[in-house]
C-alpha cells in the first residue's frame, strides 16, 4: 500500500499542475491525479515481474549449458540454489502477480540485454555469493537473498532507474515508493502460503472515510482547490514584511494543503500534519522552506483554535 506521504506528494504535484493550467477543471485534474497514483502500482508489479524474468533467464541458461557439445561436469551438475529459491518461486508462480502482469501486458521479450545486466548485478552481490556457497537451505535464507536483491540492486542500480524512467517519466518520483511496497510485501511472505501469498493492494480500504486512502487524497485535492482563496487570505494575514507573490509557489501549495487538513480532516493530529508538510518542503522546496512552513503553520493553528475553527476530534489531536 502506498503511504500517506506519497499521496500528499501526488496531490501537491497535481495542484501545482492545475495552477499552471488555469483552464483545467477540478474534475479533470482529479482524473489525472488518479492515473498518476495508479502508475505507482504498475511499477510495483513491474518489479515483481523483473524478479521472475531474471529467474527464467537463469533457468534457461542452466539448460543451455547442459546442451553444449562438450558440457563439463559443472555444466551438467550446476548449483541450482538460486533457481530453487522458494521465495522467487512464490513470486514467479503467484496467481495474483501473474494476473496483474497479464492485465498490464508486461512483456520483456525486447529487453534481453537489460535482463542479462540485471542478472550480472545480482551475481556480483556479496550476499548472492555467500548464499550460493552455503550448502544449507532455508526459507528465511531464501527470503533474505531476495530482500538483499531489492535493497542492493533495485534500489542502487542506475541502470534499473534509467530503464523504468524511460518507460514512464512519472516513475522517477514513484520509484522508491514502489520499491518500499515491494520490500514490505516480500517481507510478509510465508512459506506455507505457496503461490497464494497476498499481494498488497494500492490503497488501504476502510469503511471509515477518514481512514480510507482514496477518500483522503481526493478530498485533500478537491477541498484545497475549492477553498484556495480562503486559505490564501489566511496565509497573507500571517506574512510579515512579505507579499504572497514573493513566496515560493510550492511553499504556498503546501501551506494550503496543511490548512485543508487542519479544517477538513478531524482524525489527523495537528502535529502529524505539520511534520508531514515540513518533510515535503525538505524534499521539494528550498533550504529555508521547512522553517518558514513550520512557523506559519504553528501560528495559523493557534489562530484557528482560538476561533473554534480547528476541526479536530479526540484526545491528542490538537
Write the SSE topology.
Layout lengths: L3 H17 L5 H41 L6 H4 L9 H7 L2 H10 L7 H12 L2 H8 L5 H16 L3 H10 L3 H17 L25 H14 L1 H11 L10 H16 L5 H15 L4 H18 L12
Helix pairs in contact: 1-2, 1-11, 1-13, 2-4, 2-5, 2-6, 2-10, 8-10, 11-13, 12-13, 13-14, 13-15, 14-15
Notes on the structure:
The two termini are 27 Å apart. The radius of gyration is 24 Å and the shape is elongated. With 318 residues, the chain is mainly α. α1 (4-20) packs across α2 and α1 runs parallel beside α11. It is 68% helix and 0% strand. The protein is built from 15 helices and no strands.
N/C terminus separation: 27 Å
- Average pLDDT, to the nearest integer? 90
Radius of gyration: 24 Å
Largest sheet: none
The count of β-strands is: 0
Bin the strand percentage. Answer: under 5%
| Helical run tally | 15
Topology as a string of helices (H) and strands (E):
HHHHHHHHHHHHHHH
- Taken from the alpha-carbon principal axes, the silhouette is elongated
Q: Based on helices, strands and strand pairing, what is the structural class?
A: mainly alpha
Using brief descriptors, characterize the structure shown:
318 residues, elongated, mainly alpha
Short description:
This protein has 15 helices and no strands. With 318 residues, it is mostly helical.
